[in-house]
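Researcher: Please predict.
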Amino acid sequence: MNKKQETKGKVKMSNKEDYNDDNEYKFDNIEVDKDTHKKVKKKGGAGVKIYSVLITLLAGALAGTTFFYYRRSNNEKKEVDTYTRIEESGNNEVKSIVKDYMENGKGTMAMLRELFPENIVVYASNKYSFLPVADNVPKNDIDNKNINNLENGEIEYLKNDKVVSHKGIDVSKYQGEIDWEKVAADGVEFAMIRIGYRGYGSGALVLDETALNNLEGATKAGIKVGVYFFSQAISVKEAKEEAEFVMENIKKYKITYPVVFDTEDVLNEDARTEGLTSEELTQIAIAFCNEISNGGYIPAIYANLRWYALSLDMSQLGEYDKWYAYYDKEFYFPYKINIWQYTENGSVDGITGNVDMNISFKDYE
């Protein structure tokens, strides 16, 4: 999934190009979902704008005090004097917390996520959502203190000062012709290769035109490979059809890494999946993964934070490996993941232009 990839989620995609004739959705600078396979995290947010609301929320949460916030449709705001009320009630602790976060540049989202560890905090559609963390889904043990941000922009994960993660990339036809020997020499251990996609308009199954060459080149260079398929299935039947399509096209190759169901929103009202419920999307993902598992491969699901939290029912997906797109130097997600896609702007020898960079926390053999 890289800058220009088919169409992936609906999280925030910017600078979208246009639809090409095979009903792909390409964008140039995807922020959450890229190449239709990039899930990017929206940085920033309404920090300053909701400062007073935050104080209100913190005051209520920490001191049991309730305040009110009003907003008029014409953007005029009427706010109860929250600051004064906090002063009067003696909630200096609340003020201290807010001040500490703001002075240290941590921002609104970081504050909320630390204050509400029992929830997944997501900002979307101009509001914050607090989703309960499912008890039955395995949790991650990633410690941000062990994330090593290198000068070249790459990320490693350490344990006892030893690198335990594996360096990877994901590619599609938008990377063009790849010199896989140079890629291997640059330390890339695994590659997730787009095998194909379903057109979001026509519903046709399409093989990525570079998929087979990439599978051959990567494996010949000693790089472990997995594949991903950008889904636009609207039923369990179509999900199984996609899985069969994938397995038919990879049967000649040694697939060590997962076969991935790439699911995300398409910012187009004509998208086939527009309007599907969370339960429908979840059952479609499960159907694909089970079909892949029955075929002898390791199934996985690819999504970004918003898609996992808002569009899928995580309580039903605990048994499947997860490939997580989150573009930040620090990690945020309560559940166990196996692969982390941390940027769409990586650089690797043998590939012209930017490429998505990943690390794997799991040894796939």
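Model: Residues 48-125 form one domain.
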